[in-house]
Amino acid sequence: xxxxxxxxxxxxxxxxxxxxxxxxxxxxxxxxxxxxxxxxxxxxxxxxxxxxxxxxxxxxxxxxxxxxxxxxxxxxxxxxxxxxxxxxxxxxxxxxxxxxxxxxxxxxxxxxxxxxxxxxxxxxxxxxxxxxxxxxxxxxxxxxxxxxxxxxxxxxxxxxxxxxxxxxxxxxxxxxxxxxxxxxxxxxxxxxxxxxxxxxxxxxxxxxxxxxxxxxxxxxxxxxxxxxxxxxxxxxxxxxxxxxxxxxxxxxxxxxxxxxxxxxxxxxxxxxxxxxxxxxxxxxxxxxxxxxxxxxxxxxxxxxxxxxxxxxxxxxxxxxxxxxxxxxxxxxxxxxxxxxxxxxxxxxxxxxxxxxxxxxxxxxxxxxxxxxxxxxxxxxxxxxxxxxxxxxxxxxxxxxxxxxxxxxxxxxxxxxxxxxxxxxxxxxxxxxxxxxxxxxxxxxxxxxxxxxxxxxxxxxxxxxxxxxxxxxxxxxxxxxxxxxxxxxxxxxxxxxxxxxxxxxxxxxxxxxxxxxxxxxxxxxxxxxxxxxxxxxxxxxxxxxxxxxxxx
Length: 551
Prior knowledge:
By secondary structure, the chain is of the alpha/beta class. Helices cover 47% and strands 14% of the residues. The strands form three sheets. The protein has a six-stranded parallel β-sheet, with helices on both faces. Strands 9-14-13-10-12-11 form a six-stranded parallel β-sheet. Strands 4-5 form a two-stranded parallel ribbon. α5 (96-107) packs across α6 (139-149) and α17 (371-393) packs antiparallel against α18. The longest helix has 23 residues, at 371-393. The protein is globular and about 70 Å long.
């Protein structure tokens, strides 16, 4: 009855299994789906169903756990668009590490002996120091310890969440799975896991083999496969289907479902990486002149991106095409305080930035203040922005020097106030994370500013919207683009376990919606100063390139 009262938002039509998964009541589900099947949209529609039909009753919440910061942010934004700002307030979209940190911050006193932590503990990428600092790798084990040893903490988590979503679950590690089982294994929470074994590319990081089947058994979950690919044009889908025939024969689509000539696949051979860079640069320049938005283009490489794409980065710089290095920027720009810093610099550096100005004013708005206080603060902020604009236009201001911008940024953040900044994210309310992210944002801006001394271009390279995006394959999962270039489809890059190499290649090619370009070069110069193994003579990876051949 409840299902009959709800229909997908925005007139979307879900395939039958998708509709079942979105409206499932009281039973765990594992959804297996290939690229382009709409896994993120399915979760957004399910959230809308649960919130609007009160299957998730107030004040309980929905928890979504993703593998990447931007994936978590994208899912929450999609739920906001589908369900509105009031209901999305009860939707927590977090990475595994963010979920673990939330548990530690809330129940930290439950940690004892050698795992006890001070209230102002810090997080370092690698190093633990007594009670003062933990490494990123410590987050999940400490959260597991809290849940497994403290009934109050375990009960608090289970009372908070009535439903849990697990995205890209094929890459779940043993530690992450233990966290899920400890938190929700014997609870009344209803779990929905989505994944695709053909896209399991995190085996090197400890991803569990067969975790989707393990989850189905441990949580008595109903298995619902999705078959349709709504992302890619038919030529690209046929290429993917040729790969699926080897990787997962039961998931092969019928030939009649893939008829048509829509889409473009190009496999391009070059003598050297310089020739490759010039040709790819010309391609991108042509696409942009034809009106394609930069954010609809992705450059992908399996490994050693700073080495393999060095010539291309130089070529794009010469052509004035901003290239955003997702390896360095992806997680940072998903942070609200970093976005605020970049919006401030953008507004100060360039008067023609209405979107950045609107975003900045929205975040700075003090909703709890009286009308008089809000008006006074608004005047202070506008005066500060005006003075900052004058300062950077003064001939004495070194716009090309990243350190020159830091005092202006800190003055702006001081005006915004610490309470407003810490309210941007629960993770900012403890330890030094807020200050660390502010410094990382300034360092990232300084790094891009050093390329050409142009603040506006530096911000374009940091932007998700204004720049061509450059990823390793591991960083691009869950994303899609009109045009995708996969650099270096060569034996020297797609080496190692053939199954893993094929899975990664499958992830790469399935990001493209309409146009896929595969490149390989016969010769790549040894990068200056690089001491590791580097084969200058290169061989095309004929098996992977062969999937692009219709014949």
